[in-house]
Design a protein that fits this description.
Six copies of one chain form a homohexamer. The first copy, chain A, has 89 residues and is an all-alpha fold. Chain A has helices at 23-41, 45-55, 59-79, 84-88. Chain A has a domain at 22-82.
Chain lengths: 89, 89, 89, 89, 89, 89
């Protein structure tokens, strides 16, 4: 049976495409992907708030969160060909 | 002799292909790959439940799980050419 | 509702483009991206100062910060085609 | 003198090629590569059993092992061109 | 205001180019990049010495440092097309 | 002055090229690169032996070492075009 902890809520398509207009928008999509994935792994609101409280002033965990954003951003940057063609316009 | 802990149950082909229609489906395949790999490394149901209990409200471990999803997703995104051609249709 | 902790201040576009003239400038953009992302995840000034105090003399955390810079730099280096064409000029 | 801890037993060529027929076979090769590499780093059977006992019910270490599989799988997936041409047949 | 901890000393351009003649030189550039980045994050000489003392006999931190070198080396290897053309000469 | 801790002994060119005949040889080169890099970071023989004793029966550290090998192997695999052309011969 599908492990309910890891089920991504299909109705909430937070990532219809990896294409964005600018690097900054790509960065925000990366942040959304990290949040939504943690949300799919742990769907309980209270636990998510407790987890947030745990990492929000912890240097190691804040850097962990930043690393997750960096890993997703790399995928998005390649998908958008590094927004190079945006330069020529 | 094949180390039984790491044997992947051949009958359960959870990954016949890396190709998916949308980024979100690619994300769900990535989550399945993480779950199934941990399942291949540790096949005992009780231990898996205990492990789940251990990480489900731990900020560092939740971010760890999210990182595994991000690493698998990168492979799937490249395999699907970032669903770019889906854009033009 | 948008998770306010992860909201990136849209007005502060610290990354209009990934293109830089030299590897060193690419390195400084990578450092800015890490700082701004941690800033987006944790916007409270006092907490950021406390976090800074925590990691600034901790070997493991300093290496963590250096790793984040290395991951962002890799993306920027590819975006700039490794500044190869800068060689020929 | 060759550091014996890191010597890979040349006779046991567990990786004659990176090419596999299916993603699942690629996944199993990745798992074998992780096992054999740890085996090359630590060749003592008793220690390997003790290490197995240590990680087999530890969430952080199980995720670590899954990450190693994910990193090797990425290399194998690229080597097999993501089994794309297998799709057309 | 520019976060002074992360300011890279512009005058000290330790990385005018990513191109090197041999893999070994690429490896040494990677090591320099790691050192200089940690130096940009933490510019205080005494703290740097204390940090050095902390990691120089710690297995986990030494491997951390080796990982940072490996990540930078990957970028440099691609930039130099893996020194393949050096083979043909 | 060159930071002596990170100086790689130029005379010992353990990596004249990234090209190897087989994946297994590529794996052994990756293991050598990890050993030599840790050796460059920490050149004191006694400390290296103490560090070896520390990680040789520690699950987390053994997996760390295996990860370093996996990261280097990825670079070598790409350099050798995944030994694909070796298949056709």
């Amino acid at each position: 049976e599908e492990n309910k902890t890891m089920r991504t809520q299909k109705n909430d398509d937070y990532m219809p495409s990896l294409i964005t207009d600018t690097p900054l928008e790509g960065r925000m999509l990366a942040i959304t992907m990290v949040r939504k994935t943690i949300g799919a792994i742990q769907q309980d609101g209270d636990i998510k708030k407790a987890v947030r409280k745990e990492y929000q002033d912890d240097a190691a965990l804040l850097m962990r969160a930043a690393e997750l954003v960096a890993i997703e951003f790399k995928t998005i940057a390649i998908a958008n060909n590094y927004w190079r063609d945006k330069q020529e316009k």
